[in-house]
């Protein structure tokens, strides 16, 4: 298929990076369409570990990598990531382009993020303090700086000065925080702007031309469906749309050009940050998952919250994204269990419900209704073909696909490329 969209079907951290890396082997181009460096994709190449925050995962395959207009870009964060990859032999600049319409994350966004989280006190959202929400707020307030401005140094300087004056008023008069010095901020940003300016391009035209030419394009989403600004567990969400429809808006292609939607789920459920989490496990059980599943945030290092697989979440994600193919990750973490619960519904206020509530107050009152499946108590990390999966493990995978109303595309039993079983090409 000419294009494939990869989205997270839970609260993010589903292992999308490894799935994109596998799909990128046959692709010509990988396009990131949302989020900023508040997200992280972890990819293992052999025993080497790569933590990517903005650069698309296709860079590890030497594919054309594009940052779409739906991404917000921290200049110093991106440069730091590029240099780290280059120090390890990855020719980033030969393959990376940045949308001229992508908005920039600037130092005052990070300062405001910290000040606003502190002001919320006990009601803090648990942001990554990277300034992502503040950059998106400026985008929609029509006061943001864009990558295009990097190509016009005088324009960049003037816009930065005007924006910083306004943000300093907020920092000092609303939050009682110290102001940022323009000369210092500009001195930090100007070299980064100059270095990144040659990578700025009309990304929408580049992608559409590639599709016209029959190229294979993978659209790489960040975060997950339940963190969607419109459809997630608001306000404990990200500041962009991680759902499949955003691949079109965030890259500049028609929705008609999105041919296959792949939803990625863990074989259980995790989330980072505050907010209700119906299937969350008790701490001792969560620790068993966390150690084997390496459940610490790629970007923040924070330990993830752990729960059993939630079919209510999966059904909502399947509906919102139109998921046709399911990729299941971290299956090996379940090798240790005799019985494996799946939350098939919620019980709330004396009634059973199968749909995910919009109200957080309602969600907080929901308790999981479980069905149990037999475990397999066999190691799956060395399995290389569908036939090699334990019968109970394949039954579990098929049940998750049935829940999502999708076909099983692949299962991953570890972080490495060779720990992937592709069920359907």
Topology, please?
Blueprint: E1 3-8, H1 16-24, E2 29-32, E3 41-45, E4 48-52, E5 64-67, E6 72-74, H2 75-86, E7 96-99, E8 103-105, H3 107-120, H4 132-140, H5 153-174, H6 182-196, E9 200-201, H7 203-212, E10 217-220, H8 245-249, E11 260-266, E12 269-271, H9 283-293, E13 305-307, E14 309-310, H10 311-321, E15 325-329, E16 339-348, E17 351-353, H11 360-364, E18 367-374, H12 391-404, E19 407-412, E20 420-422
Parallel strand pairs: 1-10, 1-11, 2-5, 2-10, 5-7, 6-8, 7-9, 11-15, 14-16, 15-19
Antiparallel strand pairs: 3-4, 12-13, 16-17, 16-18, 19-20
Helix pairs in contact: 3-4, 3-5, 5-6
Q: Which shape, going by the Cα principal axes?
A: globular
Query: Main beta sheet, described?
Result: 10 strands, mixed
Which ranges are low-confidence, i.e. pLDDT below 50, for 5 or more consecutive residues?
none
Q: Give the % helix.
A: 25-40%
| Tally of alpha and pi helices | 12
Number of domains: 3
**Spatial strand sequence of the major β-sheet:** 9-7-5-2-10-1-11-15-19-20
Tell me what portion of residues adopts beta-strand conformation: 15-25%
CATH topology of the largest domain: Adenylosuccinate Synthetase, Chain A, domain 3
Distance between the termini: 10 Å
Explain this structure to me?
With 425 residues, this protein is of the alpha/beta class. It folds into three domains: 3-99 and 202-261, Adenylosuccinate Synthetase, subunit A, domain 1 (Adenylosuccinate Synthetase, Chain A, domain 1, 3-Layer(aba) Sandwich); 104-196, Adenylosuccinate Synthetase, subunit A, domain 2, CATH 1.10.300; 265-422, Alpha-Beta Complex (Adenylosuccinate Synthetase, Chain A, domain 3), CATH 3.90.170. Helix content is 32%, strand content 21%. The protein has twelve helices and 20 strands. The longest helix has 22 residues, at 153-174. The radius of gyration is 21 Å and the shape is globular.
